[in-house]
What we know:
Strand content: under 5%
Order of helices and strands: HHHHHHHHH
Structural class: mainly alpha
Number of strands: 0
Amino acid sequence: xxxxxxxxxxxxxxxxxxxxxxxxxxxxxxxxxxxxxxxxxxxxxxxxxxxxxxxxxxxxxxxxxxxxxxxxxxxxxxxxxxxxxxxxxxxxxxxxxxxxxxxxxxxxxxxxxxxxxxxxxxxxxxxxxxxxxxxxxxxxxxxxxx
Length: 146
């Protein structure tokens, strides 16, 4: 698997952990590891095979195992499990400008919104303004972006 793909997966895992309400340090660790991996110039497979991945600042034991799985097998059980914890449309909502993990978490948990279509319908029906952290302006922005 390419380095840029692994970097993106680690970053996504950090975001999915935020959506799950996991310990903020854990989600931050994935975001930091993603950035750290971006700066690595050595071949990832070589780092994994020579067990030097943990020498990269910001990459701890559990994240190094995930990276090793991705490098060697192209898969990670932890990543797959995190993705399965949410309907496919939930992470998609993060791509809407102005919606970060905290707001998407509120939409998913309080309104049971699981897709961009449901998000658009709720915004058109003015159902979002009453949510904590939302308002009429947020609804307008969501509709503009969608």
